[in-house]
Amino acid sequence: TVTNPERFEPQLNEVHPGDVHDTSTPKALATSLQAFALGDVLSTEKRDLLIDWMKRNTTGDNLIRAGVPGGWEVADKTGSGSYGTRNDIAIIWPPNKKPIVLAILSNHDKENAKYDDKLIAEATKIALDALKAKNK
């Protein structure tokens, strides 16, 4: 559960199965996002700037944002790469509830595979439904 960045864009987007460089896990990404965006790792000014950037992001409209109920606020950052890799990490604010930090990573077994935005949106719905059921 560690993030291991070793290269810069765009080279870090090319990761082959079994590689450990330029990789992470959903848990590591969510933990880092929570610390930076909701914790005290950054100053209030920097934290507010990060959240503002993520809220205004438009590359995730078909990903986590598409799986969140209407009226919920989302701040996210997307990613993609070889092997159909498509990722999204987000802070989700349900009305009158504490924020939820969610990280969804996906890939395929073929290098030139197309990524699937609907998969991320559907995984979001499933995760949020599970959280709702758990908190009843």
UniProtKB/TrEMBL annotation:
It holds the Pfam family Beta-lactamase2. It comes from the Bacteria. Residues 1-25 are annotated as: Disordered. Residues 7-105 form the Beta-lactamase class A catalytic domain. Gene3D superfamilies: DD-peptidase/beta-lactamase superfamily (3.40.710.10). This is Class A beta-lactamase. It comes from Bacillus wiedmannii. InterPro entries: Beta-lactam/transpept-like, Beta-lactam_cat, Beta-lactam_class-A.
